[in-house]
Specification:
With about 425 residues, this protein is of the alpha/beta class. It has 16 helices and 13 strands.
Length: about 425
Amino acid sequence: MKIFPVLGKWAFDPEFLGRRMSFVYGPRQIGKTTLALLTLQKVGQEHNYYNWDTIGVKRRFAQNPLFFLENIPEPAPPTGLPGKPKYSVVFDEFHKHSKWKEILKGYFDEFGSFVRFIVCGSARLDIFRKSGESLLGRYFPFKMLPLGPKDITEGESFERSKTWNPTQSPELIEVSREFKGVVQNLYHLTGFPEPFLVGRRDFYTRWKDEHLSLLTREEVRDLSRISDLVRLQTLVFLLPERIGSILSLNKLAKILSCAQSTVKTWLDALEQVFLIFRIPPFTGKLSRTIKKEQKVYFWDWGIVEDEAKRFENFLAVQLYRTVSAWTEWGWGSFGLFFIRTKDGKETDFLITQNQTPIILIEAKLSDTRPDSSLLYFKNRLSAKLAFQVTLEETQLRQISPGIFIIDVYRFLNLMV
């Protein structure tokens, strides 16, 4: 089975980028390096990959700061000439150099019309790129997230032009057996490439424990001043049972015997290292809605053992992937929210476009009775579409205009 994350179809596309650099960041072990190397191999430039974690690259830089030009077969044109880059250079983990922004700014300003610089990294790249403005206007950021079915079934053949645009009516077609099998494998395992490709639950269990230890010890320790790693790990173990529920910092603080502000700091750290992500409540257009409390999900949905919660977590990641892609494509500013009123009406997910509600989604394992809250919010928000998504093998029923009960396979065929 071959994987080519579809992000590579736009994050490295010369027409999409213009002259700008590409910054690709995301969770550890998500496949950023592999995708960058596959992209370089397609154009015969795999020798232009440099990992700044290695002594060899550090030595070459110390001897010659322009060492990356040595593998480029023609001299660079004079600085300032217009044009699009002919060559690509990947700097992996470059942000670990203390002056990486200053150096990269110089590279871009001098060679940006000749060389495309691609920078890959995980949590620290995301944090460091946000500090200061020395690279402002010189790059586009792209977040690489866990796998979706189209990374496996389409990969390099993926075309943005053939992807469903949410401003259009959805084509709810029956999907192939291959697509269904990929969705099932992703749901039952994980969206991280190595354990997904191995395809064994026992391997995934060992990988998961190691991955959690890496993030909650090494990554958190390197990125923050948090010293109480034991209680932070206890917090991680408390989160799976709270998937899909409003997260109460007060309750967690009492369990952990610490201040609410400490719990918030720990959650922020776990989000920074790409272990969890949070979805905020939607507060526009409705009165008496929850306004502050958030929901939390894991990037690795396999951590969640309860099947209903895992299914909701799985959909949360796939929806996050999709709204990120739609925004990166320039289709608008998309957001992912949930809705809950103070009297208990709730729908799992809401997608907005330019702050306007457009799609409501409710996750159900097998319940095909129309969800009353989904119908209520569809009417109150005037959203174009509402989907009740189930794990049922074949399910497609239109309840009323724009409201569908649909199986997860058809639904994910609409997503990115």
